[in-house]
Write a structure and sequence with these properties.
The structure is a single chain. The longest helix is centred in the last third of the chain and has 10 residues, at about 125-130. This protein has a single domain (about 5-130), classed as ph1033 like fold (Roll), CATH 3.10.590. The chain has 5 helices and 6 strands, in the order E-H-E-H-E-E-E-H-H-E-H. The protein has a 6-stranded mixed sheet with strand order 2-5-4-3-1-6. The protein is α+β, with helices and mostly antiparallel strands. It has helices at about 15-20, 35-40, 95-100, 110, 125-130; strands at about 5-10, 25, 50-55, 60-75, 75-95, 120.
């Protein structure tokens, strides 16, 4: 299993909207960066990801699971979609400032390339952020 971080502007697609979609999930749309596209194509059913609110919040707020692997976006077949479903909310959001302040996370893509909308997360980073967010 691989781990990911998926970023969304809450005014475009929020954690609450993701949760409302239930176990069937919803397509992760709007990705138009070649590196993020490659990351989406690498996602496998069952992989987990952090749901990250961009904008003013800048924080990890939940965990999602890939429920459907990459397929062509009907709006533009050059770009993939993956479907993700909400798994659980973090007990407390983990802000970008908190991530940057944690020495164990200094090499995390979120710290080094915070603009990338879909990014890999290592197992150690996954564990650290979950713990910071109040999850086991």
């Amino acid at each position: 299993m691989a781990y990911w971080l998926l970023k969304s502007e809450p005014s475009d697609w929020s954690w609450a909207e993701q949760v409302k979609k239930g176990a069937r999930g919803a397509p992760w749309t709007g990705v138009r960066n070649p590196q993020a596209r490659a990351n989406m194509r690498a996602m496998k059913k069952g992989d987990l990801g952090f749901f990250y609110h961009t904008g003013d919040e800048k924080s990890v707020v939940g965990v999602v699971k890939v429920v459907k692997e990459a397929y062509a976006d009907p709006a533009d077949e050059a770009w993939p979609l993956v479907d993700v479903a909400a798994v659980e909310a973090l007990a407390r959001p983990v802000t970008l400032a908190a991530v940057k302040a944690e020495p164990k996370l200094a090499q995390m893509v979120l710290v080094r390339n915070s603009r990338l909308s879909v990014q890999p997360v290592t197992e150690a980073e996954w564990s650290s952020v979950r713990k910071m967010g109040g999850l086991k």
